């Protein structure tokens, strides 16, 4: 065995997406096969069985034709890829051995041959749910960590606002802020999510932005003395309202702008003059620039997870075939907590 | 003498300004008088004769009713104030003596009694034209210095774009960039100004933004490999075009947004997502936060001015009565170089 070919179901992007993505932009291809052994002349590659796949907001930009250097678009007609958790089936790379559990960039398919191993991490702590390595212990966890600690330079007692706060990144930023001794408020798009923020993740307050006619007034209600740190996940109108409510020398970490990803024309942000009068620093960041901090990150979060001080909510869709619906649902806010697709239970 | 009262002409703001300011928003009051001696019970105050007054873009925001903490609005019915160069006539402050030359915040009038001395600096080097202390050697000079060196962290060989580049701040930023070994391009609003940038201030290139239908295309022409540093003076459409042309890890120092000051509704900026994909830091700053660096600044610029490596162009209006027209002209770009009002030649 191993020499024989096995079936390898794949999720294919049919063509570049315009506007809002639909399930029908993808197809489940059942006719592919793969050998469960690397070719003899393979170098620095791994062959993996995929266990969990991660649905992340940045993937929408990859469904579009490139208009910027980052991130690289998907290839229509081919399986899409993204972060996932996998078991190594065969390896010609000295850092990975058959049987290892890894997380990093893999294909949306049952088995993947990975030749670019630069974004693969070996999982050392397998006592926690493996799906956590698509979120809390993976890319979104590192995003929250880098954006909050490295970009925002938070101080005890500061006020923190997080948008899209119940998502994979936001729920962690809020908990990091509480660990730091900050006052933290989150916004989300449903009552369930708001409840989760307050009752599960320990945010000091939270509100449903869809029920606020005047975002500026809502922010003034929760931050009568203004906002020191804004963890920006949504862009558009929310950013405009936040700018009016920032405090002197506030910091805005721009992680994403999910409210804008579906729009052909981005909403204009009109209150940027606040950057001057309030001496605000607004900084975009992407997580790959910070992966050298991953060991330091684990050192911080693992003890807190084990003793229950950091909690985490996932929304797990079962089976590769449920992938397109799960991924598309992210952009209408259908998921509650981190959206994962379980491909295989070992 | 000194005990008697002398005439003290003043420039008064009639009422808060809406939209574009006009000369008629101000009046020259000729009926005021002032004693040329401080009261006996005066503490920590100076009485000065004003020599030069500075016209600066931020002053438009002071003509409006406050909608933010900075800057403090003018008081309708009273003389306006701003940066200027003055001779001390009388002093009850230990740091200033009769006869000293100073620069800092003073009134738009012939003589001023200054009780808030926190923004007064003694002029030590009076061999250079005194009007320079309203620009090159004063607040605009420190603004260029702080914004370029402190906020932008420039490196040799980087590409720099400056908008409103022939103004008091812009002309210096361009020259600092050249001293640093950067490639620098400026935009301005007339052929004369563009000529000045290239022939007088040594910019590598310059363009008239009013003659460019497509600012994005213009920037691509001058920066085929993108912009590392943008010194932002204008906001609006220019900022949107710049965002598309920034390089990875670029920096934007937000000094002002003069294109927006006259608009009741600010233009929306739509390309902020570039902050994320290009990891851009965009930071607002105001110069009072950096005045502790003034001695270090003088150490840098004085030798360069004396040996002609830093040049400077002023547009001097004669007489206090020419003040309103000079100030208002700033917002239609009428001035070429730093706009100053000469109140008295000693």
TrEMBL record, chains A, B:
Q: Which Pfam families match?
A: ADH_N_2, ADH_zinc_N
Task: Write down the superkingdom of origin.
Answer: Eukaryota
**Boundaries of every Enoyl reductase (ER) domain copy:** 29-341
A single Gene Ontology MF term assigned here is: oxidoreductase activity
Record InterPro entries: ADH-like_C, ADH_N_2, ER, GroES-like_sf, MDR_fam, NAD(P)-bd_dom_sf
Alphabetical keyword list: Oxidoreductase
Keyword Transmembrane in record: no
What is the official name of this protein in its record? Enoyl reductase (ER) domain-containing protein
């Amino acid at each position: 065995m191993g020499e024989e070919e096995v079936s390898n179901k794949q999720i294919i992007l049919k063509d570049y997406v315009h506007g809002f993505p639909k399930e029908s932009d993808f197809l489940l291809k059942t006719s592919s096969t793969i050998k469960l052994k690397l070719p003899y002349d393979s170098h620095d590659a791994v062959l993996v069985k995929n266990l969990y796949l991660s649905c992340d907001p940045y993937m929408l930009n990859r469904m579009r034709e490139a208009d910027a250097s980052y991130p690289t678009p998907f290839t229509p007609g081919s399986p899409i890829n993204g972060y996932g958790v996998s078991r190594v089936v065969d390896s010609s790379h000295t850092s990975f051995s058959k049987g290892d559990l890894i997380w990093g960039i893999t294909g949306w398919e049952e088995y993947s041959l990975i030749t670019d191993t630069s974004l693969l991490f070996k999982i050392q702590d397998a006592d926690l749910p493996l799906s956590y390595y698509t979120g809390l212990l993976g890319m979104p966890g590192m995003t929250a960590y880098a954006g909050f600690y490295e970009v925002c330079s938070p101080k005890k007692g500061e006020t923190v606002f997080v948008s899209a706060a119940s998502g994979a990144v936001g729920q962690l930023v809020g908990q990091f802020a509480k660990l730091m001794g900050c006052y933290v408020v989150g916004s989300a798009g449903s009552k369930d999510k708001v409840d989760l923020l307050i009752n599960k993740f320990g945010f000091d307050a939270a509100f449903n932005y869809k029920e606020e006619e005047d975002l500026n007034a809502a922010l003034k209600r929760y931050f009568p003395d203004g906002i020191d740190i804004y963890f920006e996940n949504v862009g558009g109108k929310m950013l405009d309202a936040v700018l009016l409510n920032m405090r002197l020398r506030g910091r805005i970490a721009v992680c994403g702008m999910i409210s804008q990803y579906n729009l052909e024309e981005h909403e204009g942000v009109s209150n940027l003059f606040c950057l001057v009068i309030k001496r605000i620093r607004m900084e975009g960041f992407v997580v790959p620039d910070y992966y050298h901090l991953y060991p330091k990150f684990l050192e911080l979060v693992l003890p807190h997870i084990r003793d229950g001080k950091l909690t985490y909510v996932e929304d797990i869709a079962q089976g590769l075939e449920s992938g397109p619906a799960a991924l598309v649902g992210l952009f209408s806010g259908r998921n509650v907590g981190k959206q994962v697709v379980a491909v295989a239970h070992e």
